[in-house]
What we know:
Elements: E1 3-9, H1 15-26, E2 31-33, E3 42-49, H2 56-60, E4 64-72, E5 74-76, E6 85-88, H3 96-104, E7 108-112, E8 121-122, E9 125-126, H4 127-132, E10 142-155, E11 166-173, H5 179-189, E12 194-204, E13 207-208, H6 215-223, E14 230-231, E15 242-245, H7 250-254, E16 259-260, E17 264-266, E18 276-280, E19 286-294, E20 298-305
Parallel strand pairs: 3-12, 15-18
Antiparallel strand pairs: 1-3, 1-14, 2-3, 4-11, 4-12, 5-6, 7-10, 8-9, 10-11, 12-13, 15-17, 16-20, 18-19, 19-20
Amino acid sequence: MDGIINVIKPPGMSSFQVVNYIRRLLKVKKVGHTGTLDPGAAGVLPICVGKATRIVPYLIEADKTYVAEMTLGISTTSQDAGGETENLDFDVQISPKHLADAFSKFLGKIQQIPPMASAVRVDGQRLYELERQGITVDRKPRQVVIKEMHINKIWPEEPYLQFGSRILFEVSCSKGTYVRTLCSNLGKELGTVAHMSFLVRTRSGNFQIQQGFTLEEIEEKVQQRDYSFILPIEEALPEFPKVTASPYVEQKIRNGNYVTMDDLISTVKDLTVGDEVLLMNLSGELLALATIRWKDGLICQPTRVLKGV
């Protein structure tokens, strides 16, 4: 059983708990997720099953899209609604223009300091493990990219934002972006404090929430022996062009050996050194991920073999 499941993670479960749930449900040992989603958050969490776990490094790099809610005037220890109240600012008075200007300042490349309640490792330990022990350590800022941000709604609809005002917004960003840290930093830019009061991930790479499955839906399908929710591996890498190998070199590919361009039945004409492709067989099965290299001419070198001997 190999492929990818577009899971809609419920709030209250960690990404690791979702992996364990799928592992037990499908009775498959090799299961992995493609980017941690905080326990309090919900949304798209692509799960790789079987040989699909070999492409996890590719999927982790994918951009993400979130819908978040930021509450003004209240900061928490975790920067989200799951933490304890840290500071209160009852004197908030911010114009919509000031809010829009603050949002615009966070577009593009920005620096973020990972929160203590996160899965980032420092000296081999995850930050959330240290935080549970009451230990705070210095964290180095990391560069992330905010590609788009849009304010969708403000509650309540008043001339000025005040203590407790909530801003619903959508953000598309690079991997490793902490939206709760973004909310906290936006609060500082506005001259107050803020925290993230709600988060749902609506997209992870090529996977959209509209095509996702809840854990209840997945369990029901498994009971009906319907595994149509497990997507082919190649659907996760739509940017990789497909090339088809001749049957007589299929065994070479399975063994991880390179093939020449003459060994390919169909190719993309403008392939060049460094391009990554999906190596398919005549039956349309994915044999391997491969990279185009040079060895007395262009060759196609498997980098992740996905079809066994």
